[in-house]
Amino acid sequence: MRRLAFLLATLAVTLPPAGGLSAQSADPLPSWNEGPTKQQIVSFVEAVTDADSPDFVPEAERIAVFDNDGTLWAEQPMYIQLAFAIDRLHTLAKEKPELKEKEPYRSILNGDLKSLAAGGEHAILEVLMATHADTTTDQFSAIVADWLETARHPKTDRPYTGMVYQPMLELLAYLRASGFKTFIVSGGGVAFMRVFSEKAYGIPPEQVIGSTIVTKFEMRASGPVLVRLPKIDFIDDKEGKPVGINRNIGRRPIAAFGNSDGDLQMLQWTTAGPGRRLGAIVHHTDAEREWAYDRDSHIGRLDKALDEGRNDGWTIIDMKQDWAQVFPPRN
Amino acid sequence: MRRLAFLLATLAVTLPPAGGLSAQSADPLPSWNEGPTKQQIVSFVEAVTDADSPDFVPEAERIAVFDNDGTLWAEQPMYIQLAFAIDRLHTLAKEKPELKEKEPYRSILNGDLKSLAAGGEHAILEVLMATHADTTTDQFSAIVADWLETARHPKTDRPYTGMVYQPMLELLAYLRASGFKTFIVSGGGVAFMRVFSEKAYGIPPEQVIGSTIVTKFEMRASGPVLVRLPKIDFIDDKEGKPVGINRNIGRRPIAAFGNSDGDLQMLQWTTAGPGRRLGAIVHHTDAEREWAYDRDSHIGRLDKALDEGRNDGWTIIDMKQDWAQVFPPRN
């Protein structure tokens, strides 16, 4: 009888309660260090999911939006999509040697990225158009998928999908387990992100909002296709983010996560809604495990949003202090 | 003992099996008459959801898209959104009497809709811009919600949300119970449809794709707003439908339902994908219970899509023959 009681007691501690692990019984955020940041996040989620709380939010309205570059995965030493564009330019130059004679392509193909940086947004857009258009949507997805299979990050030598942040993966899963729908709202190209969003983050293509180029329906002998044209349709950055959220989601999120001034308006729009809200900023403070940058960085500049975040009580996630682990373990 | 056996037998027939009613144990489409149309739909759903079937489709890829006007709810004697626009014009004319002096507004305000029809798309667009813009997104939603509360259909005197098709409600629920995500893809305005889509169809705002006008983020003293500008952003009709699907969903649906030539490209795009597909057209053949119209109608013209549907083996839903009931019972 004492053995049975012992057995039962053991089962009681080791087995999760009926209905699976609840947020209470196991730490849903093991890669987050204990402290005010983690506490703010957990306290928000518990408040909006507790039917007896004055802050309760019905499940259908639990929308959380996440920037991608620098918020869900690394963006240094350059945006990953730009690394894709440069690799693709090398491939295209074999088919179209005339690219080698024309700036800004010539410099890039010669490994000189300074001229690209000097050319600013205009030069970058030109490279994006040259490398992201003139295919069908299906062809483009296949090109991105192939690239992700083989490309490696220059610093860590990991596949780029290994450059996602482990604590954010846990946060996404925790929110979904708490009845949230999670969306990406990024300045990056939507057709690029959708290739890996489901596998990398558990976010399906229809919950990815991003910048778009114009696509055109064409009936070919082989059947209908959508052709990607070298023309900007929509830039999902800064003021564009609330616009994109409204266009694709049609209701205001109750939680938003960003890391740069490009996320400022999305954070303002989200946190200005009625009821309890969570605005959070990933602050890159860890030069050792990742990178440390904010106000002076060309990539992911965080200046106004950091000031406003501190003033308005947004949660500032200090990567060095708050994250026990940055990247997932290598396979 | 025989009484117990009898009781158990009774329970076995009357109680649903553990896990709830399955599609097999109760007819999920009671308002659909038995016949080839219903059979085609059910056979498609069973094939793509049966893990042992060669046609099996993983749940994440079970995307079904529905046109709205004439497919999910009535579009005669005029598009419901146009009825809203005209009512709104009367309200606005009280605030802005100058509208009464200007065509096409003057004629419409005098009850002359023929000039609107004669003015074609251009006149209709003008009326839509005048009645759908110059508010914030929140204000516009409230205006539509108020209107839906009080407006009544001119023929049936029902609230417009009572003009939804009962068989299509059952179909939407059946598909969702079978692991599908259901989307609206309509030429109608997305901001108009999202006000009622969840309540009327069980389709949340983020699964409604439609035409859009430009919205602009503005920081006001009261906080951030999105302002609706009188400028077309995107027309989600004809060739625009596959484009809108690609932009908002990012994968090709496996089932599409429409009722007019405006749905042709969406049906082509959906049915041209690999694996088993369902393309279906609601054919308005019931002058008694609803309306009968197709090739010669200005509203919901069904001509090319009917021919192509018949040639390509799409399911043609004959409203008169296939639907036991058209509208839900009156409350």
What would you say this structure looks like, in words?
Two copies of one chain form a homodimer. Chain A has two domains: 31-76 and 159-322, 3-Layer(aba) Sandwich (Rossmann fold), CATH 3.40.50.1000; 80-150, no CATH class. Helices cover 40% and strands 17% of the residues of chain A. The first copy, chain A, has helices at residues 2-14, 36-49, 80-95, 105-109, 114-132, 137-150, 166-177, 190-193, 197-201, 240-248, 264-271, 304-312, 319-322, and strands at residues 63-66, 181-189, 208-220, 223-234, 255-258, 278-285, 292-293, 315-318. In chain A, strands 1, 2, 3, 4, 5, 6, 7 and 8 form an eight-stranded mixed sheet that branches. In chain A, strand 3 (208-220) and strand 4 form a beta hairpin. Chain A is globular. The relative contact order of chain A is 0.15. Chain A binds chain B through residues 60, 63, 137, 181, 183, 190-191, 194, 198, 204-208, 212, 215-217, 219, 223-224, 226, 233, 239-240, 242-243, 246-251, 265, 268-269, 272, and chain B through 60, 63, 137, 181, 190-191, 194, 198, 204-208, 212, 215-217, 219, 223-224, 226, 233, 239-240, 242-243, 246-251, 265, 268-269, 272. Chains A, B: Its cofactor is Mg(2+). Chains A, B: Keywords: Amino-acid biosynthesis, Hydrolase, Magnesium, Metal-binding, Serine biosynthesis, Signal. Chains A, B: It catalyses: O-phospho-D-serine + H2O = D-serine + phosphate; O-phospho-L-serine + H2O = L-serine + phosphate.
